[in-house]
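Quick one - inputs below.
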Amino acid sequence: MKKEEYKLKKITIGAIISEPGSSIKYKTGSWRSYKPILTEFTPPCTRECPARIKVREYISLIKEKHFEEAYKLLKDKIPFPVTIGRVCHHPCEKKCYRGQFDEPIAINILKRFIADYALKNKKKPSKVEITKKEKIAIIGSGPAGLSAAYKLVKMGYSVTVFEALPVAGGIPRFGIPDYRLPKNVLETEIDDIKSLGVEIKLNTSITDIKHLRKQYEAVFIAVGVQKSRKLNVPGEELDGVICGLEFLKSLNLEKKVSLGKKVIVIGGGNVATDVARSALRLGAETFIVYRRSRKEMPAIKEGVEEAEREGVQIKYLASPKKILGTNKVSGIECVRMKLGEPDESGRKRPIPIEGSEFVIEADTIILAIGEYPDFSFLKGSVKTEKQRIVVDPKSLATDQPGVFAGGDVVTGPATVIEAIAQGTKAAVCIDRYLRGEPMKYGEEALPLIELEKMNLSMVETKSRIKSHSLPVKERMGNFKEVNLGFTEEEALEEAERCLSCGSCKLCKLCSIYCPDNAAKMGETEAEINLDYCKGCGICENECPCGVIIMELEVK
Amino acid sequence: MKSVIEEVELLAPGHRMCAGCGLAISTRLALNVAGINTIVVLPTGCLEVTTTQYPETSWRVPFIHVAFENAAAVASGIDVALEMMGRKGINVLAIGGDGGTFDIGFQALSGMFERGHRVTYICHDNEAYMNTGIQRSSATPYAAWTTTSPYGRYSIGKKKRKKPIGIIAVAHDIPYVATATIAYYEDYQRKVKKALSMDGPAFIHVLVPCPTGWRFPPDKTVEISRLAVETGVFVLWEVEGGRMENLKVTVKPKKRKPVEEYLMPQRRFSHLFKPERRQDVIDKIQRTIDEKCERYGL
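Output:
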């Protein structure tokens, strides 16, 4: 009912005037000793995201069908929302509080939904005016390098990116197969960065950092990892033993690859599953040999599941002992493993079981047991240690002034989102360095919301919406995209499941349960009328987002 | 989402109910559904004394205060008067406490049911005479402390069980009887709406936890109300047409919690836990609930 419909009438009985609702004169707020305060907290998804993407905020924008704004929010933070919406290992979903209630929100697929929506209706960004006199060189056009370039060009710097390969994009360009990330998607996002004014010099290897540093005020090294680790078993030099990254590079840069009928992939990471699923698409019978069990596998869970569904046979707890064959590979001898005590990585150490050797035949063996960077180009100009460039973790600065490094060269092989986070961090610190400010990177983060503070009694259980995927039988012999994402209706339905941890979602529960009509919904969050609030604390206890805090009021 | 800031609350703030009062929440919920075209009949009780402090009133609908025992009789009179005047579309809502309904006003209520007036009677059950200082009523549950059912060496609190007022109302063969509680506000409001649409008497028995009389912190009001349902202490049901076989449980707890979770936070039951744990009494309460829930198919 609206105010105008309701007219207050005075009732006069003798000398007494009693107005309907006249008790509003009596301000019961004076009874209070505790006062409710609306606070905002960091949700677990954002806390867990290496790039601190504002997940709760963009999901809330999806709920209101403001897809364009949601995209802007994402694009503001990272240059690759469309790519990341496909390839991210989404640590956010592991920590999603809804996961402890029923199932986590499909954060990554929602992100992909808005990114795809924007892709359909997007305009090219216009060039950013160069306002700063310093020039910056970035070595490597992977996610770390390009994220740094994106941030720096938006700050007004002139940025040049040097790329040794004939294509830009790094691992997402040549190391992730098309069925996971169609290349036109990545290219659109790289084009956006170029339109902003970043210059990308392809086929340009840098061999002298010191010389480069003389031409540019700051240098950011983000060359990533190129070399695959060796097994160190007999027979590794045989024809038919190839490296995972090399294989993916040949495949993606459209060179012919012939594998034969039977392929064995060794390793348990994302490269291993990508290689195996690609080999399967090329028509080979494919095995993965991994020395630990499925639980310890570092690959994204979905990648392993899809690989198995497509028909990749995974041999767990098996380790290669010898590669068999005279000139050409004919098979592999493996030994069975059992799991012992956890090692320094926290995973259980595999121990060989004596006498349990077995043989698998193969035409090709692909090694995907880890990658490391090629530092020959550095020529000792920057300090390295254990195949990583040594940097100050707060600023990513190397031992050379004005030279920064980030991405896989610093962290070791990691994920795309971690590389993006490193690039962003480097950009902020390079800017601070050039302005002569202390180099440190830290966002002022609100404290994490605790699950115990959120009252989920009135939330109904609802399963996570499954996204569409290409039927398995349509996947073979081609590299068509497998995950097809959400429709608009599905995205809206899934977004509704978000609990909005640590931020008011205008659910009205406080207003419904307030005995004193003191809580009302404002534009963006609940508002509490302290004139009448008696400080009972029901709103704090019932708030499903955990945003109301009762604070002792000293009078 | 639509903002409700413009909406006029029919129960104005500034009332003197205790902080965290369940009664205030329940009244707001019911009035929101009943709307402006409602006449409220109010017998003596917490709600009456806290909303009508001279010379102010919290009511934004016409209301009449009557004596403790005759809310149902006055409401019947209003119904007949409206009929004689040819006024249609006006809700008559009687809101009594457990004292005014279970005990003192019961005779008038029974009469109203028998005569079949078009009145919705909401009983706010806070399980004792809270307004006068927490004296036991026939709604006070077994083993609860009140000032007139103290505990001690020879007493475990109230010795008698709670009167099943809802079932008694159903026995009057009236169109609609339901139970509700504040935590499940959607269920409650739906029942009020249904009750008001009936052509004849409707009765809603609402459990409203009382922080003052039940001895729990005021922020736990809704939680205790929810626990009452989750433990099976209070079953939310409705019966149409006065036939018990039509009884429908409207909110089913997914997994029924042990009654202890409901008793523990309320200090009116604290004597069951210290100085020594009265497992025999807790078990007895649990058994009664189990039997009741079995009857309701929970």
